[in-house]
Specification:
This protein has 122 residues and is of the alpha+beta class. The chain has helices at 15-23, 59-76, 98-114; strands spanning 26-29, 33-39, 46-50, 83-89. Strands 1-2-4-3 form a four-stranded mixed sheet, with helices on both faces.
Length: 122
């Protein structure tokens, strides 16, 4: 039975990949999240998460935010162009109900898609 998880090729894993997004990338943001993005040559979108202890001292809260981010990305990733994304949570994200976080993320994805050309169909 296939899993609904996020495959390895859809994630940023190396420190250099995160560092490249910090130095030269586009930006978008909302009340609870800040997004950095740049093109990649892989033909699909990849996600990296940066949820620091500044957001919440409680690992349970940080993990909840990460689960919501991954779920939101899973739903939209095939509509996104070939880009690397790094999502950073702001301190305001802690304590916000999950449904509100998902609504804000959907708005960020729409903002990102509006500023980008449509991905080419192969």
């Amino acid at each position: 039975m296939p899993t609904a998880g996020l495959p390895r090729e859809a994630r940023l894993r190396r420190p250099g990949e995160f560092a490249a997004l910090r130095t030269s990338s586009g930006r978008a943001g909302g009340r609870c999240f800040h997004l950095r993005f740049r093109d990649n040559e892989l033909g699909h979108a990849r996600l990296g998460l940066a949820i620091s202890k500044r957001v919440s001292k409680r690992a349970v809260e940080r993990n909840r935010i990460k689960r919501l981010l991954r779920e939101s990305f899973r739903r939209i990733r095939y509509q996104l162009p070939a880009i690397d994304l790094m999502v950073m949570a702001r301190e305001q994200a802690a304590g916000v109900p999950g449904q509100q976080l998902l609504i804000e993320l959907d708005g960020l994805w729409k903002k990102l898609l509006a500023n980008r050309p449509e991905p080419s169909s192969h």
